[in-house]
Amino acid sequence: MTAVRPAPLRTPDGRYIVVRGRLWRTANPALAEDDRAALVQELMQARRAVGVARRGGDPDAEAAAHRRVDAAKIALGERGPVWWSDGAPDLNRHMAHTTCYAEWFRSVSEA
C-alpha cells in the first residue's frame, strides 16, 4: 500500500504552493484543462528524459531535456513572466517567512 501525500499548502491568493517553507509558483489557473494536462504530460516526459540522459552520460541530450522542462514550465506559468496582472512581484523560491505571506504562513504553521 502506498502512502497518499497531502496536497501542498497553497497561499491564499493561489499563486504559490509551499514546500519546506519555500514558495513555488503554481501553474496559471486560466489555462484550459486540456492545455494544462498536455503541458504537465510534456513536463513529466521531459523530466524522465533528463534522467535517461544523465544515466546514459549524454550531456547534450541532458541539456536538450532540461530545455524541454524549462519550456513546459514557462508554458504552464511556473517560470517566466508572472500570470497575474496586479503588479505583485514574483516571489518564486523565496522563503515564505521572509515575504508578504509571513503572517499567514506563521498562522497556518502553528495550526
Q: In percent, how much strand structure appears in the residues?
A: 5-15%
Mean pLDDT: 95
CA gyration radius, whole angstroms: 16 Å
pLDDT under 50 segments (min length 5)? none
SS field, number of helical segments = 3
Number of E strands: 3
Helicity range: 40-55%
- What is the oligomer described by this structure? single chain
N- and C-termini, Cα separation: 29 Å
Number of domains: 1
What best-fitting shape do the alpha-carbon axes yield?
globular
Largest sheet strand order: 1-2-3
The SSE string, one letter per element, is EEEHHH
**Helix vs. strand class:** mainly alpha
> Main beta sheet, described?
3 strands, antiparallel
Give a written overview of the molecule.
A hairpin with a 5-residue loop joins β1 and β2. The protein is globular and about 45 Å long. The longest helix has 23 residues, at 33-55. It has one domain. It has a three-stranded antiparallel beta sheet with strand order 1-2-3, with no helix packed on it. It contains three helices and three strands. The protein has helices at residues 33-55, 59-76, 102-110, and strands spanning 9-10, 16-19, 22-25.
Main traits of this protein?
single chain, 111 residues, mainly alpha, globular
Write the layout of secondary structure elements.
Blueprint: E1 9-10, E2 16-19, E3 22-25, H1 33-55, H2 59-76, H3 102-110
Antiparallel strand pairs: 1-2, 2-3
Helix pairs in contact: 1-2
